[in-house]
Design brief:
Elements lengths: L2 H12 L4 H4 L7 H29 L13 H8 L1 H32 L5 H9 L6 H11 L8 H13 L18 E4 L2 E4 L8 E6 L24 E7 L23 E6 L2 E7 L5 E4 L8 E4 L19 H26 L3 H9 L4 H29 L3 H6 L5 H4 L2 H9 L6 H30 L1
Parallel strand pairs: 3-4
Antiparallel strand pairs: 1-2, 2-8, 4-7, 5-6, 5-8
Helix pairs in contact: 3-15, 4-15, 5-9, 5-11, 6-9, 9-11, 10-11, 11-15, 14-15
Keywords: Cell membrane, Membrane, Transmembrane, Transmembrane helix, Transport
InterPro entries: Ig-like_fold, MetI-like, MetI-like_sf, UgpAE/MalFG_permease
Protein name: Alpha-glucoside transport system permease protein
Length: 452
């Protein structure tokens, strides 16, 4: 044995051997790991596993829990008409709300890169996330009030409509019901009893309105001058405060009805239209021959437009979805803004230098590179829409809750909201879990792919 070989063996004897070679385990034993994991496993079992297992078991019994009914509760979900409405509404939520939240969040995220006060804008858009869904529901319950004096939505709609509408409605007004009255009611309109010719004065006295219902600035009625060309007349409230006055005659203290639409008809066809002045007078100077019928169309007597019935059975679901978008658009904006910030600017600048328009850059570069974040937001919103409860419960009045119902709310209603049917409620809970599970599994598998 050479000196070099002896030295190598001596060095080997002085080097510690690895644990695998000695049969020893590196680190604590598996038993120690079990003790550390045991509290979390127990908590998971008590708060997640046990409720799920018990709900499956309870869904196979009747409302009292004493009679085994098998899958009857699940059959009821798909055969009862109210339940089918609930499932339809849930499908509408899943089809509409996540897509709109994602699109609105993307628009806001793009805007934050192009405006000066981006931080302030993000703060305002994200602020609804700081408010609970219950409080958001209360806010939008007032926003959707039918009365424009209280509901912001209808206040905006009626204000915009009033800009383009110059007519003045007089709902409740009507002619006197006697043979001497110069006008009569006909299919909701008011027409002259006899045809009139040019040069004649048409008096249109109306009753059925209290003087205090008219604006304070309403002027006294005035009889049109004699000898003027065409057909002239007056529309006024034929009522003298305090009594007195002659019927079918313009008295001193009687009020004019201004802004009322007046039509002149010949052979059943409208040949002229005008509106009454502040003193109630109107004129058709272009009518120089022939007999005509003067008519106040029915639109004058219809109730004024007070906005949409947001809390009615027709619009209640779109209204609640709009509130949902208001709450979650900030969340989507923050995630998408972070995704936009991570996109390489070189790719965007290269596309612009090659002549691509901003829309082409957005559609062909930004959106494909942002697609993983868009998918995260979209799937998260699907899960949130399947679990939506607070907004529907608070915004929808009790009379229209059946039309706005969703699975999560119905589960609470049949179990704890007065129904007392814990079997059906458990079946709805399991049905909701089945709806959510595919999207949760999709998210988990995507996270694993990203980490691998």
């Amino acid at each position: 044995m050479t000196t070099k070989t002896a030295g190598r063996r001596a060095a080997t004897r002085g080097t510690p051997r690895p644990p695998a070679a000695t049969g020893k385990r590196l680190g604590p034993s598996p038993k120690m790991a079990v003790w550390f994991l045991l509290p979390a496993v127990l908590l998971l079992g008590v708060m997640v596993i046990y409720p799920i297992v018990y709900s499956i078991f309870r869904s196979l019994f009747d409302a009292s829990g004493s009679t085994f009914v098998g899958v009857d509760n699940y059959v009821s979900i798909f055969t009862d008409s109210a339940m089918l409405t609930t499932i339809r509404n849930t499908l509408i939520w899943v089809a509409v709300a996540p897509a709109l939240v994602t699109v609105v969040g993307l628009i806001f995220a793009v805007m934050t890169e192009r405006i000066r006060w981006a931080t302030a804008f993000k703060l305002v858009v994200f602020m609804p996330m700081a408010v609970s869904l219950m409080a958001s529901g209360v806010i939008f319950r007032f926003v959707y009030e039918q009365d424009p004096d209280r509901g912001v939505a209808n206040a905006v709609i009626t204000s915009v409509r009033d800009i383009f509408s110059s007519g003045s409605g007089i709902p409740g007004a009507r002619p006197r019901e006697n043979d001497q009255a110069p006008v009569v009611a006909s299919d909701g309109a008011v027409v002259t009893r006899q045809p009139v010719s040019p040069g004649q004065t048409v008096l249109v006295p109306l009753v059925g309105l209290r003087p205090d219902m008219l604006p304070a600035s309403t002027a006294p009625a005035k009889t049109p001058g004699q000898g003027t060309a065409g057909i002239n007349g007056t529309v006024w409230l034929d009522f003298t405060p305090g009594g007195g006055g002659a019927p079918e005659k313009v008295d001193v203290d009687e009020k004019a009805l201004a802004g009322v639409t007046v039509e002149a008809l010949r052979d059943g066809t409208v040949v002229a239209t005008t509106t009454t002045a502040n003193d109630g007078t109107f004129s058709f100077p272009e009518l120089t021959s022939g007999d005509h019928v003067v008519r106040l169309p029915r639109e004058n007597f219809e109730a004024p437009f007070n906005g949409l019935s947001w809390l009615g059975p027709t619009l209640i679901t779109p209204a609640i979805i709009a509130a949902f978008i208001w709450v979650w658009a900030g969340f989507a904006m923050v995630l998408l803004s972070a995704g936009l910030a991570s996109i390489p600017r070189d790719a965007l600048e290269a596309a612009r230098m090659d002549g691509a328009t901003e829309w082409q850059v957005f559609r062909r570069i930004t959106v494909p590179l942002l697609s993983p974040v868009l998918l995260v937001v979209f799937v998260t919103m699907i899960i949130n829409t399947l679990k939506v409860f607070d907004l529907v419960f608070v915004i929808a009045p009790g009379s229209v809750q059946p039309q706005a119902n969703v699975v999560a709310l119905e589960m609470w209603r049949v179990s704890f909201g007065g129904g007392g049917d814990y079997g059906l409620g458990s079946a709805l809970a399991i049905f909701l879990l089945i709806l959510v599970l595919p999207f949760m599994m999709f998210n988990i598998r995507r996270f694993k792919r990203e980490q691998s």
